[in-house]
Design a protein that fits this description.
By secondary structure, the protein is an alpha/beta fold. Helix content is about 45%, strand content about 15%. The strands form 4 sheets. The chain has a 7-stranded mixed β-sheet, with helices on both faces. Strand 9 and strand 10 form a beta hairpin. The structure holds pyridoxal-5'-phosphate (PLP). Pyridoxal-5'-phosphate binds next to helix 5.
């Protein structure tokens, strides 16, 4: 990888040390240009006319995203965020009273809130799969609970929002594929940093966002809809005239592809930017990104572990480009201000993002640092020095 060139493509590298890629990454210039140029055309030629003119180019969003997930373009829908994508998939499942949703303590809070809302409205039960001693999902317990409860849904976050843990999604898929259970995978934090083969996961649905490790814009997400979900006739609770056709006064017909989950009105400029972000990544190669990130994160983790009064918190036998740590004797606000003053972008995560996980770890908040391939070893060293200095002040 030509890191100098990549950093030249990334204007934000000049002003700050951006280690908040799990929040929102820095867009490459090409991505921001694709959005700006598209908006400029809309300004001059009109929104509908611009979409028509660029129809072929916009289609590439689906083919590139399909390449990313090793699936076909017909399996991809564009959404406004990972939550939008996740909720649309969730809304397609016909829940009945006492249906079981199986999930883990490491799943994303908004997903859990949606389950609680379903519980309030439809009386579904939420059951948690145990974690192993090393932190990831216990596959034996998963198998046992699937057999025992015949869940309607298994929902897993590939990588949680607040730790570097990576769930073994392919092994999970190998279990769940043998049961009549819908598998919804939240890949919000993994897309763009880990290679994900949709078919290998056996997931019915995969939700994701562009602004994080994919380096796309905010306000853009995707939904993978498997062939089996399409064949089962799963469709969002509220399709509109993009996803379906009003074919008779009492009848509508859904599209045959994943775009039945889309709405008619869409931010085409963001779709165009997202397409560019995927193209950028495909050109670099996800395997190269993974290799580079592994090196950066390994160095960073080892350095942080050696600093007194710092506790690195991540669990899991496989870990990725998210590191969380706690700092003795300082508080959330002071830590946030400290890094801001040093022009280092990190995220301070509080316990509402990881209610159970943080309770088990005995903390209320943590610093989340998430490097990506365009960061340099020098930036990592500057960050480590800043943490060391902070720990001494504490
Ligand atoms: C694991 C995970 N899932 C889902 C989401 C929600 O993504 P969005 O904000 O795009 O809806 C996040 C956001 O941080 C996340 O970390």
């Amino acid at each position: 990888m030509d890191i100098d060139l990549i950093r030249k493509d990334t204007l934000g590298c000049k002003s700050n040390i951006h280690l908040n890629n799990a929040g929102a990454s820095l867009m490459p210039r090409k991505v921001a240009d694709a959005i700006r140029d598209y908006i400029s055309e809309e300004e001059i030629y009109g929104g509908y006319e611009t979409a028509e003119k660029h129809a072929n180019e916009l289609e590439k969003f689906y083919t590139y995203s399909a390449t990313l997930l090793h699936c076909q373009a017909k399996n991809i829908a564009f959404c406004t965020s990972a939550t939008d994508s996740f909720d649309k998939a969730l809304s397609s499942i016909p829940f009945h009273r006492n249906d079981v949703i199986l999930t883990t303590t490491n799943d994303y809070p908004s997903n859990f809130i949606a389950f609680l809302s379903l519980q309030k409205r439809y009386g579904v039960d939420i059951i948690l799969v145990d974690n192993t001693r090393t932190g990831e999902i216990d596959l034996e317990d998963l198998q046992h609970k699937i057999k025992k409860h015949s869940p309607r849904l298994l929902s897993i976050s590939h990588v949680p929002t607040s730790s570097g843990l990576v769930q073994p999604v392919e092994q999970i898929g190998a279990i769940v594929k043998n049961y009549d259970c819908i598998f919804l995978l939240d890949a919000c934090q993994s897309l763009g940093q880990l290679d994900l083969d949709a078919l290998q996961t056996h997931a019915h649905f995969i939700s994701g966002t562009f602004r994080k490790f994919l380096r796309g814009p905010r306000g853009a997400g995707l939904l993978y809809v498997s062939d089996k979900a399409l064949e089962m006739g799963l469709e969002p609770l509220f399709p509109d005239l993009r996803g379906a056709g009003w074919t008779a006064v009492n009848h509508y017909t859904s599209r045959s592809d994943a775009r039945r989950f889309e709405h008619w009105e869409t931010a085409y400029a963001l779709l165009n930017g997202s397409k560019e972000a995927v193209a950028y990544l495909l050109k670099l190669g996800i395997e190269n990104v993974q290799k580079r990130n592994d090196i950066l994160v390994h160095k960073l983790r080892n350095k942080l572990i050696s600093i007194p009064h710092i506790k690195v918190l991540d669990r899991g036998s496989r870990q990725c480009s998210i590191i969380t740590f706690s700092v003795e004797a300082t508080n959330e606000t002071a830590a946030k201000t400290y890094f801001q003053q040093k022009k280092i972008n990190v995220h301070i995560t509080d316990k509402s993002s990881a209610l159970v996980d943080f309770r088990e770890k005995g903390i209320d908040w943590a610093v989340r640092v998430s490097p990506h391939y365009y960061n340099t070893e020098q930036e990592i060293n500057i960050f480590v020095d800043a943490v060391r200095e902070m720990s001494m002040q504490a």
